[in-house]
């Protein structure tokens, strides 16, 4: 697995922090993007474990940070089978989506399920990864 990560870094030009992370621009405002993701999670009946407003937390610590919100959500019917294959994937679950503003643009980032399959040595065609990819893809289509 280490050789795969090294390959990705050397040949894709990505830094270690961005390997396996998918990021795209939202066509909506920050507030609209956050609202759309929250509504999608609720509409699909997923468990919304937490919404972390990092900008608010920074402000409370007397620091500044542009709008930055993290959604932590999932479905035990999807995540548990992956943990049954490799418990370490629990470090990357539940699913997280980050929404942030940078230089006036709104970005959405998440850990790519295929990268998680490689990282945790679980077959990429596992039904749980397929379901995660479908949900993340539906959110992306809604925002682009």
How does this structure look, described?
This protein has one domain: TT1751-like domain (TATA-Binding Protein), CATH 3.30.310. The chain is built from 6 helices and 5 strands; from the N terminus they run H-E-H-E-H-E-H-E-E-H-H. About 3% of the residues have low confidence. Strands 1-5-4-3-2 form a 5-stranded antiparallel beta sheet. The N and C termini lie far apart (32 Å).
Task: Write out key terms for the chains shown.
single chain; 144 residues; alpha+beta; TATA-Binding Protein; five-stranded antiparallel beta sheet; 5 strands; globular
- Average pLDDT, rounded to a whole number, is 91
Name of the CATH superfamily: TT1751-like domain
- CATH secondary-structure class: Alpha Beta
User: Beta-strand percentage?
Assistant: 15-25%
By CATH, the topology is: TATA-Binding Protein
Poorly predicted residue ranges:
12-16
- Per DSSP, the total helix count is 6
What structural category arises from helix and sheet content?
alpha+beta
> What is the number of beta strands?
5
Label the overall shape: globular
Number of domains: 1
Strand order of the largest sheet: 1-5-4-3-2
Binned, the helix content reads: 40-55%
* Radius of gyration, CA atoms, in whole angstroms: 16 Å
Named CATH architecture: 2-Layer Sandwich
- Let me know the largest β-sheet: 5 strands, antiparallel
């Amino acid at each position: 697995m280490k050789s795969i990560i090294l390959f990705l870094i050397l040949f894709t030009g990505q830094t270690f922090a961005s390997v396996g992370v998918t990021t795209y621009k939202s066509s909506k405002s920050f507030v609209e993007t956050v609202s759309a993701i929250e509504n999608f999670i609720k509409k699909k009946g997923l468990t919304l474990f937490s919404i972390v407003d990092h900008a608010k937390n920074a402000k409370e610590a007397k620091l500044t940070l542009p709008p930055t919100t993290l959604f932590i959500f999932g479905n035990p019917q999807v995540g548990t089978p992956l943990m049954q294959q490799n418990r370490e994937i629990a470090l990357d679950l539940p699913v997280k989506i980050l929404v942030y503003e940078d230089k006036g643009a709104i970005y959405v980032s998440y850990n790519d399920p295929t990268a998680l399959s490689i990282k945790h040595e679980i077959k990429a065609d596992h039904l749980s990864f397929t379901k995660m990819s479908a949900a993340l893809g539906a959110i992306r289509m809604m925002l682009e």
